[in-house]
Amino acid sequence: MIAHLPILQVIIPLMAAPICLMLKRAQLVWLFSLIASGLAFAISILLLQQVMTSGVISYELGGWQAPWGIEYRIDKLNAFLLLIVSGISTVVLFAAQTSIEKEIPKNKHVYFYILYLLSLTGMLGIVATGDAFNVFVFLEISSLSAYALIAMGKNRQALWASYQYLIMGTIGATFILIGIGLIYQMTGTLNMYDLSQRLPEVAQTRTVFAAFAFVIVGVCLKLAMFPLHLWLPNAYAYAPSIVTAFFAATATKVAVYLLIRFTFSVFGLSFSFTTVPLQTLFMALGLIGIFAASTSAIYQRNVKHLFAYSSIAQIGYMIVGFSLSTVTGLTATLLHLFNHALMKGAIFLALAAVIYRVGNIELNNLRGLGRQMPLTMAAIVIGGLSLIGVPLTVGFVSKWYLLMALIEQGWWPVAVLILLGSMLAVVYVWRIVEAAYFKAPLDNSSPVKEAPMSFLIPIWTLIIANIYFGIDTRLSVQVAEAAAQSLFGVSL
Amino acid sequence: MSLSLEVILQLAILLPLVSTFVIVATGKSPNLRESVTITTCVLLIFLVVNLYQGLSAGKSISVFWWELLPGLTISFDIEPLGMLFALIASFLWLVTTCYAIGYMRSHQEKNQTRFYVCFAVAIGAVMGLAFSANLFTLFIFYEVLTLSTYPLVTHAGTEKAKKGGRTYLGILLTTSIVFFLLAIVSTWFVAGTLDFKIGGIFADDVDKVIAGTLLALFIFGIGKAAIMPFHRWLPAAMVAPTPVSSLLHAVAVVKAGVFTVLKVCVFIFGLDLLAVLPTTQFLLYLAGASVLLASLIAMRQDNLKARLAYSTVSQLGYVTIGALLATSSGVIGSSMHIAMHAFGKITLFFCAGAILVTLHKSKISDMRGIGRQMPLTMIAFFIASLSIIGVPPTGGTWSKWYLMMGTIETEQFVLMVILMLSSLLNIAYLLPIPFHAFFPNLISFKTSNTSLDTTEISENKASSFDIKEAPLPSLIAIVVTTLGCLTLFIYPQPLFELASAVLTGRE
Fold first, then answer.
1. pTM of this prediction?
2. Contact across the interface for B178 and A385, Cβ inside 8 Å
3. Do A390 and B143 touch (CB under 8 A)?
4. Which of B147, B157, B177 lies at the smallest CB-CB distance from A423?
5. What is the 3-class SS of B300-322, one letter each residue?
6. Which residues contact B183 (CB under 8 A, 6 or more apart)?
7. Which of A69, A216, B102, B381 sits at a 20 to 30 Å CA gap from A309?
8. Are A135 and A188 in contact (CB under 8 A)?
9. How far apart are the C-alpha atoms of B162 and B274, rounded to whole Å?
10. Helix (H, G, I), strand (E, B) or coil at B192
11. Distance in angstroms (rounded) separating the CA atoms of residues A480 and A336
12. Could you give the ipTM of this predicted complex?
């Protein structure tokens, strides 16, 4: 059993999806999906433990040996990602039943859970697999289900948002496929580990350069890196709230993982950062992304839009850490992956609770909610403080590492810019605080009650995690550091 | 009490925080809630005094809480400067609570439970800040202090309060995150540690340019010290209820700022290094400019609280100057000025609040003649003004004396002139207030004839007023802090001992 954990991780949600179709009753399906996701979470914990103690786990699918068959290869990096994805998925799913009650017609509830599980499968698969083509397959599974999930949003704009995402996502996936095809042509292998051995020989060919360009652009489309982010705000804003919470905390993280995997493991550090000037390019784009997206966030009237732009800005921070190509920089990025998932998971769940009670999420509708939904609004404020990077929250930890990484390399001006960027976060977070706490509720609105427990429990689980991992940083820092070091080949 | 000093130290930080739960629980009954607060204040003073005795007995008291990141710890260690700050803050908390009970009730403020809760959190943060053993711990409590005082500043919930809150939080958070945090991370990178150590933590061969830049980052980053151009938050914070302005914005928050400046100068850089850094002179002049400009602006304010706020900005500059002078008399002067200014300014604010609740006046131009109605308050105002100006028989004399000594020792004659000029300006913007209060019709000092006449008329008219002082708890508070100003002149010994022990370590 233990030996099969890497595949079970992916198989469980995959198998659970069709079973849901047979269970029919929405409540049962919810419970079943929750269990499936919970199992995946438990497995990811076991895997992480195993990897941390005994190193890389290689699992050969169907017993076919590695370069020919599909290999699942779990190292510290993807064990960490599996933990984030399955953990957030489980917590978010907890609130799903209450939330979709008001946002999705009853007859579609079962399909919702099926798509959710498929999407989860896709993400876990992308992360777990060690095979480049397999990545593409799972990418399509997660993307296709994502398009359908977003289209379920209750406004008509959801269809348009989903369509936009479909076009952009498909271009991205196609680019990745082309890239993978080109490197397959050059090396004759799809196994990532094998690729990393063979690519250096042919590194100086135009084909490999083209492949690299295709893969990077494709991945950057998926991770909504500035200026390829245009699909994200609408997709997040019009999707059902639960879907937003799930994707905001996981989907872009998985794409960042792919970026790291392809640049560091497959193409190799020296190719990605020495032969190709990725550093300057990404540093600049990351910084522009932080400022452009944060500024847009300030001017949004819809709170979901606001935090969607904030997500793009946070991706900018990850990109800046990544572009440094140092152990500390990568540690900062990985930490921020984890920390940002906690913040945005909590914030978007809280927004889901507001939508459940108030019906929509325009800034004006938040008026007076500080009194009417104290726990939910407090959660948004703490999540916001974490975004800003106030000490004792997780946001501070990743900011600290990012600053260290920048100063280590002598990038002082960038460090100042990063900090100025987080001041923009103060502005947009405080717009919400002022709306919620300083404005009296609109006259014609009926009194609003606090969110139900099925929301409060997952929201506060994540908020407490925000504070806990801001104080007890051993788990996140150790794993992130170890993963970064192993990617750089530093022996421990 | 058989508690060990280490336990007492932790209790002193935790007690105010824990009390918030009790305050919330008893929120329904104001009397019970206020007695909880008072009890907490008294207990806190007891704890801090115990710590003081421990420190005087030469014991080292330190506590380690948690290692956040490798090498970055939350830990506490008591040294004389922190002790001094904690003593002042805890004592004045009691006085302010007493004052606040009278003020908040007669002003019929809403959300009083939230008020007392945030107040307690802020005091807890001050205790943590005063006792922190390294810059990192200090930074955490620094931010907690900013955030916990935000609801107090915006207490009224009006549009004006919201605006003031924006400026308050905007400046304090921006400076602390953009400059202060950057300075901390860089210090950590350059020096490899953040622990406070006498003589500083930088290596002897540290690059002077880098260290100089860091010093500038620190001085600008510690926005709570209100060095111009980052002083705007302090006048903005005056929208808060007066007890908040008096304790937090005359004592706790601003003193936390200059305390941090002193800590950084003495324990991170060390006086020897500080004296040779290229930016020190520039920052000294900046602080000097801050002293002078703020005094000038204060003269033009008609709102009493705004005038006091700018006066605070100016006085905070004194402390920064003392720290940057990098001599022992400068540091002693600064440390003492923290205490002296605290007592003087809190009294002035108490008076301003008392005038507001009893006579509903906030403009200085409306305050002519109120000395007849509120004689005690205005006498207190007069004495406290003397302390701010720095003339006997008030405590302010001593700190200004040492600061002057510092400028003379280091031959900073420009600064000496600035300090003297500023004292003159203090006279010009503080003393007319009690003066006009007692002699309302004395319009100008130019022609002695008219002034004599008008004085007589005013005395005839004024006799018809009834005495109408502030509510009793508030009045007690005013008297206590005024006596404090006087006592510190006659008996500054313990304070002086603490201040002079700052440089040598434990007494």
1. 0.88
2. no
3. yes
4. B177
5. CCCEHHHHHHHHHHHHHHHHHHH
6. B214, B217, B218, B221
7. A216
8. no
9. 40
10. coil
11. 9
12. 0.85
